User: Fold these one by one.
Assistant:
Number 1:
Amino acid sequence: MPPNAEDAVTVLGGGAVGLCTALDLAGHGIPVRLIDRDAPGQGASSGNAGVISPFSVVPQAMPGVWRKAPGWLLDPLGPVAVRARHLPRFLPWALRFLRNGTAGRARQVSAAMEGLTSGNIELYRRHLQGTGHEDLVRDSCYVLAHRDPRLASDTGLDAELRRAAGARVEVIGADALHEMEPALSADFRAAVVIHGQSRATSPGRLMSVLAGKLRGLGGEILCREVKALRPAPEGGWRIYCTGEDLHAPRVVVAAGAWSARLLEPLGLRLPLEAERGYHVMFPAPGIALNNSVMDANRKFVASSMEDGLRAAGTAEFAGLDAPPDPRRARTIAKIAKRMLPDLDDTGLTTWSGVRPSFPDSLPVIGEIPGHRGLYGAFGHSHYGLMMAPRTGTIMADLLRGSAPNLDLSPYRADRFGSV
């Protein structure tokens, strides 16, 4: 990348959001450099359940979540865990989270989420076109499987939000469910089926293919750890990396859970939590799922992939620097065996990574107020894979000086107060 090109952009963070942003910029002929300490897309973007849903528009904070949270926390097999040492730092975030759990606020947030998920399947297919790897995104349904048929409803607020986004939502009984997914335990007796979804058959390889396309478009990819970001005396930004310092006229911070730490020395105080997730990979499962399937009670998702069957889930709040807890992965393996009785767990492997989560389920997108040439594209929580392509097009529009066809005020960095 020409180091002094006035329109050049450096993207900090090579996850799905950073890659899609860099791809869109390069596609418009803008010199772009992407920096990540690891191979692009091989962090949290590779470890998810692979769901690509235009209708993932249900916020984490929903009415009644405050009643369920204590039971989740007390259940050793529950979907949420908070380490005691992190509790004092977590509580202010949790209170903000709970304040978002009203019906009116959920509808507002959902509309903003739809602005980032709509068209995501088509956008991924556009990115994959001509790569020879178009089969990495496959059509499927999202099956929310329930043990208690009374809980499988298409009349609640979550179904309302999905339908408002254009989803076809259907409730099916035990017979139809087990015809759709024969490997499921007979304990599951109903499901809510969301049609019109897709799934990535290998999220990690999908990211690698996108990185290869970026290089083919002339994008530069550097494997560096970014230590600090400062305004440069000559204008633009100075990026302090391990081994060298770099200059950039414009910078997009897309560093996921590490973004707030990178921005804090600039005076920005953002309520971004590092929410650790886990997955278990079963390389020779002996069974297959035809769709992405959620155990609606335990809040984890299983999906068949190129290299086996993946079960992913849990939300563990422990701080950015806390090591993984192997017990959480073992919990997922145990639940997966209950969900899929004939699952062969020989040779299973585990993984963990951190999601960047704001208390309102929305990311920061756009120029950081008071910091010219500095942009944010981070905080996508559980929805990073799904929101990445649209975030990329929005960021490319902004950096090209073209107004996106979307109200960006819900994603402003200063929505939490002065930054």
Number 2:
Amino acid sequence: MKKFVVGILCFLIAGGAGFFGIQFFTKTGLFRNPGELVFAESFLDSEAEEYRELFSETTLDKDLVFSYVSETSLRSGDPEGTKTFLVDVIVPIEDFYSTVETIPLDEFDRRVASGENVVSVSELDSSEKLIAVDGRYFLDSFSDGAMFKYLRIEGGEKDLKTATELITPTLQSFPEKSNTLSMAQTGVTAFGRGLNSMMNSVGDGKYFSEKIGEYLRSFDLTHTSNEASFSENASSANICADERFLDTLTDIGLDIVELTGNHNLDCGAEDAIATIEKYEQAGIKIVGGGRNAEEAARPLSFNQKGSGITMLAYNESTGGATTGDTPGANQYSEEDARERISEAKARGDTVIVDMQYFECSEYDSAVENTACDYANSSDGDQIGVFRNLIDLGADVVVGTSAHQPQTFEKYGRGEIYYGLGNIFFDQVWWPGTTRSLGLVHYFWDGKLVQTRRFGTVYDSDLQTRLMDDSEMEYFIERLAEARPL
């Protein structure tokens, strides 16, 4: 019996030794090593250390393998046994004055590899020019025009769940449709004279916006400066607007109408007030003009998608300003601008100031005339006045009286666009007055991150369209060369 018991004990001891020995040498069971973090060669030591610190109090079942994956379009899903996290978005940039609007994909890939003329979108600001890739602009599509850098982790299901819980709170957000506000600014709209004649011929306000409406409607907010009030007296001889032109404005998705122009009283005070009422009934917000001086002076402030914007709009010198209880444009006062800019900045708003300044009228022939490209081509100190608004704290200053587009510049911490030109008008006699410089401001994370420029043109059919690539290159190069020195 004793031998039997001893034999059983020896068997158990031997079996146990073998069982635990296997675990010891295979690092399983009681002797199992916990999983480790394994990093691809592309990881910097500092990056790896951040993840080791994040996982320092976590025991893993198996190894987690970390690597970076780059894709030029958003991923459709995670491969089995992996979890992928978006950690950066790389976009191509150019100098603020560059005429380059888009680059091919292979050029973008080369830039990413070399680190040349690319930046993380989280570091993008309006001092640099974001450009498209194969015509796809990231801040419009959010899924193209960029290189998306992902952190990919391979491992077991339990460990991947743990990794997700740890990493997700550390991820930064990036621009997307839900958090990026786009606002298009367009130049002079003056529905009158030849436009009234064409309206009588075509009978449809959407005729004039047919080639530009879809583009302008695509933005969250769209602005124009309309100089003509609606009137039953509209004719080919005045700058009063046929009421059917309201359909043109709604077709471009107009949200903001600026009333700083000098022709809104051409049809009389009653029509000017009735026009304001039509805008209000259509849900179009008003800035820079009103039924009286108090209403005209009110800033337009709004907060959408996490960004606050204040618009101020003034008439400095072209006439048509309100006096007391009469309707009209908001007369410029440096004291008023200083106070209202200060109030808006105290709220943390981005400030855009629009200005009707002296007009350049050197349209002396049917050939190209560059005189009006320059900021000081009109009376007064246009450069000094506009730059002073930036010094007062404005982020963007836009001239809205010029019938021919004027130059632009980066000044201090802000941007100045001295004149946008005509988007809807009948001036087809001079090449310069058929063009306009349009702007699209993009706001993300409470700040202005980019202003994209676009060009429009119309001819004798009075249908405004976007410029093609060659027209746009010529246009921007010409305006950039005229910038103040």
Number 3:
Amino acid sequence: MRRFRICAPLISALLLATVHGPSALAQTDAPAGASESVSVESGAEEMPEGVDALIADLKRERDPEAANRLTEDILASWNASGSPTIDLLMQWAQSAASEKRNAAAFDFLDQAIVLKPDFIGAWNQRATLHYTMGNYKRAVSDINRVLALEPRHFGALASLAAILGERGSEEMALKAWERYLEIYPADRQAQEIITKLSEKLAGSRT
């Protein structure tokens, strides 16, 4: 069965959190058998007014380049920890991950989460690391936490959709992509994925 893989701009949306600063992840010790269920409509923790305005602009924007600039600003806001100590831990985690010292990267991320459990940047970066290592159950556990803190996190939604698609849960993947597109409607590749996946699912029901 053909799978719909996450496309490059959508991977970039997720990995920007790793490349450009702190990202958010879920529980400090996600069990290996963690559930893959997720609610994309859970309540958001209150974010700075600037983020709300940027997301409102992103929902209205139809020009892909302008929308991409908005996503960079939004991710920068989500990745701002407000703590020099946490920022240093996130830098160490990024360096360790780039050098394939994954155990050290996880240790730094866990420390950041202990210091600030509601920091979206650390949860997301840990989810990204699990995702790149193929630890999908742990990645989904952390993505759940990201979306509990910030349901509008388009990078986490894109990652969730990709994982669900890879694991054959295509109807759930479609719902995640649709939620993603509500927030980031200018992403044309996401539009194409939704169209193809909708056609595939419609064909399988006939």
Number 4:
Amino acid sequence: MYIPHSYKNENIEEVKSFLEQNSFGILVNQVDGKPWATHIPLELDTDANGKAILVGHISKANQQWKTFEQQKEVLCIFNGPHSYISSSWYKEEEVPTWNYIAVHVSGTIKILSEEEVLASMYKLVDKYEKNSTAPISIDSLSPKTMKQIKGVVGFKIQIKSIEAAYKLSQGRPEDHPKIIDALEKSGDIGSVAIAKEMKK
């Protein structure tokens, strides 16, 4: 990913926090010589050695998994908030632009055993059910429902690199107050989120 130096976020703890909060990503590799992408939760975790990994699963009907043994290198893309930035918010004439947060994670993929997939599902469900008014757990699901685990392929990705782009009008600090004000007044979820990030 091309990232101008001023937009690079090299604060790894901040980026990891972003990944934990924005875990619905895109898993990219090649299938039959063509780019292939699957939109799935990719959860940040650590392996037995304490190294950062991503964990996820896809349907066995998705042929992407059949390439994992031969093509171990994968790319995972995570998108954060984004918003159009009007140049009418600037003190001086300039072209409009777009502010955004995006993270690319590259690594090597390995298929998990059924037991490992189940363990990852416990973590996944517990994470997202904790704020539910009537939370469920894997343990509460019937054996018939749990048979669906045989229809997925789980995997872990050993992380090799993380690239984080935080494009937040860094080159126009004098215009930040007006940009933030306009974004907040828009009422758009993405715009308001970008305004919050710019305030940081």
